[in-house]
Task: structure prediction
Amino acid sequence: MDFQFSAEQQELIQLVRKIARERVAPLAHQIDEREEIPAELFNTLRDAGLFGIAVPAEYGGTDMGILGLVLAVEEVSKYCCATGLLLLLTRLPLAAILYGGTEAQKRKYATGIAAGTLRGAFCLSEPDAGSDAANIQTRALRKGDKYVMNGTKCWISGAAHADFFTVAVKTDPAAGHKGMSVIIVEKGTPGLTVGKKEKKMGVRGLSVNQVIFEDCAVPAENLIGEENQGFKLIMKNLNAVRPVVAARGIGLAEGALTYWLGYGHERKTFGKPIVEHQGLQWMAADLAVDIEAARLLTYRAAMLVDQDKAGKESAHILSMAKYKATEVAVRTANDCLQMMGATGYMEDYPLARYVRDARQLTIVEGTSQIQKGLIARALIDGDLAW
Ligand SMILES: Cc1cc2nc3c(=O)[nH]c(=O)nc-3n(C[C@H](O)[C@H](O)[C@H](O)COP(=O)(O)OP(=O)(O)OC[C@H]3O[C@@H](n4cnc5c(N)ncnc54)[C@H](O)[C@@H]3O)c2cc1C
Result:
């Protein structure tokens, strides 16, 4: 076992660290307040090649895999969790296409994502089906050489800017999860509407919206993989992105603890800097241990995905990484706010934003409870090979 990053990975970390410090950090407060990522930052990330990190070289990416994306997302999320999500969205709507799509689909969408000319959104959740993904009601009915889609998706990240939508549908509702498929819908298709922008607690730089399909007819060739085989594809898609959500968590946690350290050297109580109070040192030490443990788990999870083990064989490790890192993010942000006193509670300082942003992470792409259910099932079934 080798805990060293390759020269290429180290170069990537240095590149993104510099961009994160110089370009992301100064904008993070504004991104939260104005609820948008400025075009200049989008262009900086694109020009640095960061949208193509997890895209194969034949489609214009740098082919550094999920581990590469994890390293980049960790760096930017130290300052801005919404920018971490922007990078995550280079993978979430693309994974099913890369796993199950045709060559033409891969060439079009992967190339567009890597170049920054296309943006995507992943549409699974519905008002009555979040965790219970197999219960989705959006219907796609085959009519000649088209699928006609009807239904409503909700809480869709990046929908407002998306050029294409990777949509989970029912093609055979009577068959339950065996009647699910995944279809690409392009922006501008008649019958597709990006609906209401939700007012949300955190990660305000990227909105979530409803996405509505009303007799929306798309070419049958927009189907990804085989009809009624979509459930496995969606699960593999979600599994493969879990380390990237985890990376948003560890980046956020590292950023929160680092911010507290800077503050804690300056702020004095009882005649000494607060970092010298043992009560706070023990809190900080616990957080540091948790962050380091979550990082290792996340890197391992990313390596498994890059070894094409995002299926059932390693799903529990990917769930562990997502569960651990996002819970660590919530706890770290909360404890660091506490360790700053009233200053931590004020929106002029970043900790309040970190607390609001962290709360998203334990809910999206499988809640902590769903992850624990998957881990427990693997444990009971004897899948944990120790
Ligand atoms: C900011 C944000 C961005 C999002 N972006 C996207 C996106 O881009 N695309 C997309 O498709 N979705 C997106 N979502 C939706 C997200 O994936 C769902 O919120 C998530 O899957 C949980 O579903 P739910 O909210 O319906 O909760 P529910 O499924 O209703 O769960 C409610 C509660 O019950 C618990 N629970 C449910 N079932 C079980 C069980 N079997 N055992 C134990 N506990 C259980 C859950 O953990 C939760 O605490 C986003 C959500 C948010 C908040």
Remarks:
- The beta strands are 120-123, 139-143, 146-157, 164-170, 180-186, 192-197, 208-219, 223-224, 268-269, 272-273.
- The chain has a mean pLDDT of 97.
- Residues 122-125, 130-132, 155-157, 200, 203, 208, 360, 363-365, 367, 369-370, 373 surround flavin-adenine dinucleotide (CB under 6 Å).
- The chain has 13 helices and ten strands.
